[in-house]
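hi support,

uploading two proteins for the ticket. first:
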Amino acid sequence: MPASTSTRLWASMCRRMPGTEQIPVTPAGSSAPAARRPCGRQTTPEPTTRLKIEKDGGTPFMKILVVDDHALFRAGMRLLLNNLSDAATIIEAATLPEAVAALGEHPDMTLCLLDLSLEQANALDALAALKSGAPHVVFVVVSARFDADTIRAALDSGAMSYVPKSMPAATLAEALRRALSGDIFLPEEVRVLVSAPAGKPTLSPRQLDVLHALARGLPSKIIARELAISVSTVKEHIGAMFISLGVRNRTEAVIVASRLGLIATLSK
């Protein structure tokens, strides 16, 4: 659990748990009001970041599903998300079946934070299954697993971001904000880890279709129409290609792909 999340959770527990009253301390020879000994470690508060999306009518609204088999982590994540969003409904699931049921019960779910270490479930198969059943939901992986193959596979399976649990809360806030805007986002440490290796990367057939469309200079809406897929799916393929090719924008993607022989020309 990120340090900032555990700090907030501990502070909350200190306020609620019996036997953790703050102890008044009066300096010797002083009539000043008693100071209080802080419960837990003192930290400088982080600036809060509000996450909002606009529902029809302009009212901020968000439903967030937290899928993790550790109850303590889910509780800490709930505290963090409630701090980040003024109008969020947080729903929890400890297993894949619970997550599937929650998505079915809440068709207006906005965002899903998914751990890849669920018991009795293949992590990447779980992500693919959830994404297939709820293609409109933005999936962000928050996991202790931190290896390049897993991160690439998660992005290929539909995740819009991958945030290791060791990252600070501010990084998660940025990931959620970017993912909700339709962007693939990786923290710098993750991006460096999954930078394209030497040699030719492997792209899926659909990613190659999107890549050839990019080489023709087509915008996402036209690509979606030609390939009979949604614009959000096009963006997911583009983001995954950027990771595989180690590039930051469409122009770099076309140039690198041409140099690697993935596309024949730079035709438009």
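and the second one:
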Amino acid sequence: MKREDLEEWLDTKWLGRNLQMMEETDSTNQRAKTAAATGEQEGLVIVAEQQTSGRGRRGRGWISPPGENIYMTMLLRPAFDPGRAPMLTLLAACAAARAAMEPGHESPRIKWPNDLVIGGKKIVGILTEMGMKKSRPDYVIIGVGINCNQTTFSGGLEQKATSLKKEYGHDVCREKVIARFLNEFEELYEGFVQYGSLAFVKQAYEKLLVNRGERVRVLEPGREWTGRALGITDTGELIVEAEDGEIREVGSGEVSVRGVYGYV
């Protein structure tokens, strides 16, 4: 990737203006944590051509072949209550969906709360982590992995994962996608800071939500149940109508949600 190409597309005020581009690292999230610990300011973005120890949600590995995809992490220094940090994952998903869209092709859809899919196959993963100082957030880092130009997937992932190149039929400019994502996320983040919830973006998020109106399987500790996803709350919980008609709110930190008949 070329820094000058990325910066040409970048239209942010503060996000990504401190940009670190690396050929290889263990994990961009880990590098951002280290930077946070040394006092780095909000807005740092770390981009790597390859990760050797990338991670996804719930500690799953994130396969990171070199020179094909996007592996990046943003550093934020929020001043709000730590209970609001999970909502940033939904903002990142919304920004990623907008950044990866291409006219004339099927658009990426959000699988609540943190994945994007096209045709039922995963194309984006997001991992949000928070560091605390006493009772307040010291930092929040948001790692984003986007399958861009990868065309082969091993280890049984062929049926579960895809890339923008496979779906759109041509190479994708990774610098442009990164810049578009950062442009979108900065605007959403500033709206979130202003309004204090997801109410201002709820309708737009729900239009992208692949689960909406579909039957889902909710995997809670000790039990499993099914229902129909209706949308999200102003604070990002998934609203599900259970089989008995009860309306329940599902938090992303507590459960895993799957489609009844497949990944989504």
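thanks. also noticed: The helical segments are 3-9, 28-37, 86-100, 164-168, 174-195, 202-208.
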